Amino acid sequence: MYKWVIIGGGVQGCCVARRLLQEKAGNEDLLIIDPFPGPMHVWQTLTKKIGMSHLRSPSVHHLDIDPYSLSKYSKGHDFAQPFRGKYARPQLDLFNRHSLDVMDEVNLEESWKQGTVNGMTKGHNHWNISLEGGAEVQSERVVLAVGVNHIPYYPEWANKKEMPVSHVFDMQTPVPDEGRVIVVGGGMTAAHLAHTLSNKNGISSVYLVKRHPFRVEDFDSDPGWLGPKFLKGYEKLTCYDQRRRVIHQARHKGSITRELHVQLKRQMRASRLDIHTGEVEKAVTVENGVGLQLKDGNLVSADSIVLATGAETCLPGKAWMEPLIEQVGLPCAPCGFPVVSTTLEWKNGLYVAGALAELEIGPAARNIAGARKSAERIVTSA
User: Fold this and answer.
1) How far apart are CA 160 and CA 101, in angstroms?
2) How far is CA 115 from CA 133, 189, 198, in A?
3) pTM metric for this prediction
């Protein structure tokens, strides 16, 4: 039996695991279960796929405990211009290398198990975790750090069987490397992808189709949500419907940074990128390709369509988590998400991180800063 099992090996799960291994557990005591072969696989695959060069978050947000660890690391590893802009946004390669080295310090991969969880039950003094293929793992404590990007959102008009439509969140499908491409979406993922494709040899035309005007914001939520400025009032809210409304209003969903906005406009002026704003009415077959008929009457045609429309809005791990909620009587808010203690304990040694912790952590729960907060609360309370 393990002392700790972490379900999910993305940024959230690895941040918690790294701190547990440093302060509370040995490698033989902890197991990380994830569908992919190594730590932060989805993060690394997706950021490479869209051509991200720098993170949106500042240099103090990373997997190590010392907030200045990434800055110190950059000086010791000869990175040219490791940070960009007034918020010191780190190079993606710098962040990834630092993350892997920080995890190597505690031999995190020794605690890795590739597998997909399909069930979980409560034992007498432990938790039983079932995996696809029939394996079962037992642990005294469990951290649910399940990601939110595993179920891509396909709009109703996106008929995958009849149209050359793919989704950037589909880890198995590469982005096109030739021809004319339509990118659908208005947030950071879509903007990065459109910018990257517009610079790629072999791509003849790139069209970015988005529902709303660009929403330019430095971060995905105000930095005040990382401290008492906003959290003090938030924590006084006892109604979870109110908390959910506050989270929804605080998140700058579908926004992009000022820097990326400038880059997109530069590509437009250079005639490497066309941007269309409007609702898609339907996808249609056109001569030598596929088209998007917009509700304003415009038709955008290309050889392929790549969706950057985010993930389905639902409880992460819903298929196997809902039976667990019912069996154990786990408290949930009206939105279906966990109601947890300030230490992020749901019940009897079951903890949450990431999106599952957002009703306690607040609007920043899903990002790197939220991962650091979750790790601190779980580890210091255990």
Assistant:
1) 40
2) 9, 27, 37
3) 0.95
